[in-house]
Design goal:
21% helix
Length: 412
């Protein structure tokens, strides 16, 4: 989260708030006057979506507030995790039980990132460096919601497969033991952070020249096949530094920061490992939200590189819902219209006759669109469903690409 605010509330209703550091850390909050257990809420933008996470701490010390602690509270509470801020914290035994359920589902994943099966989601200290618990949060997406009157938690691997669903009725389906997921968790992801640290350093420069110099000094981070299109301008390894810095300057973003680099989707099925990373660019009140670029770890290489676009095609996805009420009747009944649209450019790398198509169709029974990492409300996905890209769509509708279409890495 960037520009996030953390609020801690004691069981006596007294609270204290503070800003969260850009790396997600916070410290030196006084709990004087507050009584345990403490309820925590952290709110801020993640991938262009305003998001809140929740946690409960039984005492002072380390207290993480993440998607996993939110999932833990959701199961323990049997309802929306946000309710703890007004209705009080779940019991310690309920929190322990819900955490054990999630720990069991995550057992192989926890071991793959070097954590014990009993690692506490709230009190296990970690840094935002794509190792340990932070790596887990990178690669495992957690979402919550309500299905058939039951509150649910869904955990999904962003690498390979794996999908675990549990709800307040006790129903459980799926698993996170997918071999590609566990293997992916074993990869070193810290190089991705280094790429975006360099981009952040460049964005913070005061002039286009200084920005370009920073990127020039980090030219080795670009993959040999780097390509990116911004405002119909094609960027390559030769003009990347000048064009990116010019774009930042023209948009009033130079002197700001590159924030919230978050894994959105990874494809580790081939010898080259590719991940799409979402991020925001901020400079005061000027914000470019929801940007994304791909990074690649080539076979035989130990260094992640900036690939630019994951595919040569641009796909834009939009969803709309319309609610209609008749004004000329005494008891109007609402009707709803929902639509999803795909805009697929008719040219790729200068070729205008590339075959591209997409088909929108009703989803099979039991399947619904998956939720992005930052969502706290979602319809449950069918465990094991092959779809891995989150597409903004009304529940009940999915999409399939034709055999000639590329993998849907949608820009939103």
């Amino acid at each position: 989260m960037q520009n996030a605010t953390l609020t801690i509330m004691g069981s006596n209703g007294l609270s204290v708030s503070a800003s969260v550091n850009s790396d997600g850390s916070y410290s030196n909050l006084s709990l004087n006057g507050l009584t345990a257990p403490y309820r925590l809420q952290a709110c801020g933008p993640v991938n262009a979506v305003y998001t809140c996470h929740y946690a409960v701490a039984q005492g002072g010390g380390v207290a993480n507030v993440t998607s996993l602690t939110t999932a833990q509270i959701t199961l323990a509470n049997g309802g929306d995790a946000a309710g703890i801020m007004t209705s009080g914290a779940p019991s310690a035994s309920a929190l322990s039980g819900s955490q054990q359920t999630l720990q069991a589902a995550l057992a192989q994943a926890l071991a793959a990132v070097g954590l014990s099966g009993g690692a506490d989601f709230t009190t296990t200290a970690f840094n935002a460096d794509r190792t340990g618990m932070d790596k887990m949060l990178d690669v495992i997406a957690a979402s919550t919601g309500v299905n058939n009157g039951h509150t649910f938690v869904q955990l999904e691997g962003r690498v390979g497969g794996g999908n675990f669903y549990v709800d307040s009725s006790g129903a459980q389906t799926g698993s996170l033991g997918d071999s590609a997921l566990i293997s992916g968790l074993g990869l070193d992801l810290t190089g991705i952070s280094q790429i975006f640290a360099a981009l952040n350093s460049a964005a913070g420069s005061g002039t286009v020249g200084a920005c370009a110099a920073v990127l020039g000094n980090n030219a080795s981070m670009l993959d040999a096949q780097f390509s990116l299109t911004i405002n119909q301008q094609t960027l390559n390894a030769g003009n990347f530094a000048a064009q990116i810095c010019s774009f930042l300057s023209q948009g009033g973003l130079l002197g700001g920061s590159v924030a919230n680099p978050t894994l959105r989707d990874c494809d580790f099925s081939g010898s080259d490992k590719i991940c799409t990373v979402g991020f925001d660019v901020l400079n005061g009140s000027t914000i470019q939200e929801g940007a994304e670029m791909a990074v690649v770890l080539r076979s035989g290489s130990a260094a992640w590189k900036l690939l630019g676009q994951a595919t040569p095609y641009e796909i834009h996805v939009n969803a709309n819902v319309q609610r209609t009420l008749r004004a000329n009747v005494s008891s109007p009944q609402p009707s709803y219209y929902r639509a999803i649209s795909f805009e697929i450019h008719t040219a790729a790398n200068g070729v205008s006759n590339a075959v591209q198509s997409a088909k929108v169709s009703p989803a099979p029974v039991g399947m619904a669109p998956r939720s992005p990492r930052s969502a706290t409300r979602a319809a449950p996905a069918n465990p094991g469903s092959p779809s891995r890209e989150a597409v903004a769509a009304a529940p009940g509708w999915g999409w399939t690409a034709s055999t000639t279409a590329i993998w849907p890495r949608a820009t939103r």
